[in-house]
Amino acid sequence: MDKEVLKKAFEFHGHICWASAAGVRAGLAALRELDVQRTGSSDELHCKVEIGENHGAQCFADGVQYVTGCTLGKGNIEKTGWGKLALTLIDKKIEKAVRISYKPGRHKMIAESSFMRKRGQGVPPTQIPPEEAWEMADIVWEAPESEVLTVGSVQEYRWEDDFGEIMGLTPCSHCGELVSKVYLRVVGEKHMCIPCSGYER
Fold first, then answer.
1. Which has the closest alpha carbon to 171: 193, 186, 196?
2. Among 30, 139, 143, 166, which one has the highest count of C-beta atoms within 10 angstroms of its own C-beta?
3. 123: how many CB neighbours lie within 10 A of its CB?
4. Calpha distance 117→59 (Å, rounded)
5. CA distance linking residue 8 with residue 195, whole number of Å
């Protein structure tokens, strides 16, 4: 595999780590299985990534985003909140999907790496020497796919886009900041953003 894509993914993510490397490999496998290219728009691919909140290895999602092109800004990636390192990539045009998950074939090696020992002591990833970080990332990157990924079969996946993209921004009557029309809330005769309106959602 071309390591340049991994280097660029780490630049996007902000530091070198095994979980981003796993996300890159999982994303590449999903693109391969669906026989599609990285997307530049929101109407081609959609990704469900199974990470949750506040747990280690959420970096997986940045590897997936970089490789697949499914990003928060395009609205074509979502978290299931299950705390797992897995993704389902959906080709919206042909309505097929594949699920790829990280498996612990080499995870003991990762856990015992000098990088992870330092992380366990509270050292930020950006303060660990790059050679130690690369040594740990290569455990995932250079492994046979069968040791680090479970690649599912391509399945039919009916895609239903409930709303589509809703265009239009309007200034909040209270703070004046632009807000998507969908998120305006009515307060008396005024239309306000959610924080100014007092509504929770």
1. 193
2. 30
3. 12
4. 18
5. 36
